[in-house]
Amino acid sequence: MRDVRLVGRESQLENLCVVLVAPRNPLNIGAVARAMSNFGVETLRVVNPYEVAFRDARSAVGAEDLLSRAEVFGSVADAVADCVLVVGTTAAGRREPLQPVHRLAEAAGLMGAALAGGRVALLFGSEKRGLLNEDLAHCQWVLNIPTRERQPSMNLGQAAAVCLYELSRECSDAGEESAEGAHSAASCEATTATGGELERLTDILLEALDVSGYTLPDKAAVTEQNVRRLIRRVNFDHDDADLLLGMLRQILWMLRSAERS
Amino acid sequence: MRDVRLVGRESQLENLCVVLVAPRNPLNIGAVARAMSNFGVETLRVVNPYEVAFRDARSAVGAEDLLSRAEVFGSVADAVADCVLVVGTTAAGRREPLQPVHRLAEAAGLMGAALAGGRVALLFGSEKRGLLNEDLAHCQWVLNIPTRERQPSMNLGQAAAVCLYELSRECSDAGEESAEGAHSAASCEATTATGGELERLTDILLEALDVSGYTLPDKAAVTEQNVRRLIRRVNFDHDDADLLLGMLRQILWMLRSAERS
Fold first, then answer.
1. Cβ contact B165–A165 (<8 Å)
2. Separation of alpha carbons A81 and A57, rounded Å
3. Which of A52, A103, B125, B126 could cross-link B22 (Cys pair, CB 3.0–4.6 Å)?
4. Please, what's the b/e burial string for A234-252 (b: 16 or more CB within 10 A of its CB; e: otherwise)?
5. What is the spatial order of strands in the sheet that B101-103 belongs to?
6. Which of A39, A105, A254 is facing B147, going by the closest CB pair?
7. Is the pLDDT assigned to residue B36 strictly greater than 60?
8. Count of alpha carbons within 13 angstroms of residue B50, beta-carbon side
9. What is the phi/psi pair of residue B150, to 5°?
10. What distance in Å separates the CA atoms of residue A155 and residue A143, rounded to the nearest whole number?
């Protein structure tokens, strides 16, 4: 066994996009880009980088291209708008996320299945603070790399490398069992709602809650987080989202007409 | 499943020692130390470092102790003298080692078995040239992280993180099946909504749709079926159902007051 390079369903990883939220250090951005390049992940998105010159990130040996194609977004919502699954990352010790948490090994299985059906986003927070609750609110669930209690927090570039390694392992494992792979691709084809659809659902429900007097003025941020989490925790497919959107539009229209009269 | 820290046979990794041969960059040495600290590997050995001041390596957040205990050796032979197994690392593209090559996933299994019996060394070469043939000559076999042909060579700190992750996974998989069971039980404890809760949700949404004019008189049965299916297809847990019920109650109340006025 001399040639152990990645083959198989490497192409599935093309549906993965890595999203760095408010990264501070160009060195780390470069390291993430290099790991992406090692494992065949092409799409890097950056939300509000601290350092605008992040494209100059050094240590991105062999990943200059990928870095120059990186897209910059003003919000997490925009960065994940076309994604059928949005996964956050968190260090075990940092804080208790409200979303379900999966260990990396099982998370890779879940993400592998979703990658067969559409774009999947993997979010990393800033080196200093990680993902904030408002970022996590866009995530269906959170993955965690099991580390030691005494030193749970990993360097950003290393955490990304470990995640991408596990995902590429998952995808090539899946590719080796071809029948199995075909089946799981088919089962994922039932179109999951995209981040954009979930965002529209969130907006219209928030508006209905506001107009109906559910949202207390001083609790608006809490309500928004609750709604955002609810909409993402639930497994809406495209048709569900569509149906619910139609319902909420009508309810909102009626609430608004009542307000005017 | 909130606590996903490493427990179980972590202690087995105490028999692992990481050997850096002729490392050049203190930043990378620091990064290796940090990954070791994340995954519970305590013994770092350095052979002929280019930079004598490697102990000052930055980016070794939480690994200062480990770094200050690192031993310096004049030869690979001395550094691995007490080891029952010596494993080299190589990038797929770099050169054809004469030793057998195992992919990381299978290598971790082999190393896990050996760790139960004594000290095991994992060697990394310099950032620039990797392990030379004279270094590899001390190795029983070589491990390789499967990467893309176009960009096979990983950053030293990232390669170390990926190897140690896989090894710690191997060791905890072996020791931790019962803990895993406990963990998935805990993760499922987030109670699924009951049939009764789903029914209340269905009723109140149907009522809101009716009052808002969404439900067409001659299509009431179809709407009811759609709502019933939607509510059940979606994976509500108890808290989701509760939250949504509260929201819909308020919306309905507002719709009803509008109707009366």
1. yes
2. 26
3. B126
4. bebbeebbebbbebbbebb
5. B71-73, B43-47, B16-21, B120-124, B85-89, B141-144, B101-103
6. A39
7. yes
8. 12
9. -70, -30
10. 16
Chain B residue numbers with beta carbons less than 8 Å from the beta carbon of A104 are 165
Q: Is the ipTM of this complex over 0.90?
A: no
Instruction: Give percent of chain A with pLDDT exceeding 90.
Output: 40
A120-124 sheet: strands from edge to edge: A71-73, A43-47, A16-21, A120-124, A85-89, A141-144, A101-103
Instruction: At A8, list the tokens.
Output: 């198989």
The angle at the Cα of A45, spanning A40 to A46, to the nearest 5 degrees, equals 135
A216 CB burial (10 A radius; 0-12, 13-18, 19+): exposed
Q: Give residue B90's pLDDT.
A: 87
Note the pLDDT tens digit of each residue in A142-193.
999 999 888 888 999 999 999 999 999 888 765 444 333 333 333 334 477 8
**What does the buried/exposed string (b/e) look like for A9-29 if buried means 16 or more CB atoms within 10 Å of the residue's CB?**
bbebbebbbbbbbbbbbbbbb
Closest residue in A to B257 (Cα) is A258
The stretch A100-107 carries a mean pLDDT of 92
CA distances from B130 to A107, A157, B21, B91 (A): 32, 20, 9, 8
Indicate the residue of B101, B169, B235 with minimum beta-carbon distance to A234: B235
Mind telling me how many Å the CA of A175 is from chain B's nearest CA? 14
User: Which residue of chain A has the CA closest to B2?
Assistant: A101
Q: Given the structure tokens 């404890």, which residue do they identify?
A: B189
Instruction: Report the alpha-carbon angle A149-B186-B7, nearest 5.
Output: 25
**pLDDT tens, residue by residue, A75-84:** 999 999 999 9
Task: Tell me if A154 and B31 make a contact (CB, 8 A cut-off).
Answer: no
Contacts of B259 in chain A (CB under 8 A): 258
Whether residues A243 and B250 touch (CB distance < 8 A) is answered with no
Terminal-residue alpha carbon distance, chain A: 77
Residue A165 to residue B150, Cβ atoms within 8 A:
no
Q: Which residue has the tokens 């939607």?
A: B230
**Token duo for residue A38:** 């090692």
Summarised one tens digit per residue, pLDDT across range B197-241 is: 788 888 889 999 998 888 988 888 888 888 877 887 777 887 888
B59 neighbourhood in chain A, CB within 8 Å: 155
Judge whether B19 and B124 are in contact, CB under 8 Å: yes
CB atoms within 10 A of CB B189: 8
Lowest-confidence region among A61-70, A126-135, B110-119: A61-70
Which residue in the set A2, A38, A147 is minimally distant from B154, CB to CB?
A38
pLDDT of residue A9: 45
Taking the C-alpha atoms of residue A22 and residue A79, their distance in angstroms, rounded to an integer, is 12
Query: Is residue A202 within 8 Å of A245, Cβ to Cβ?
Result: no
* Centroid of chain to Cα B192: 27
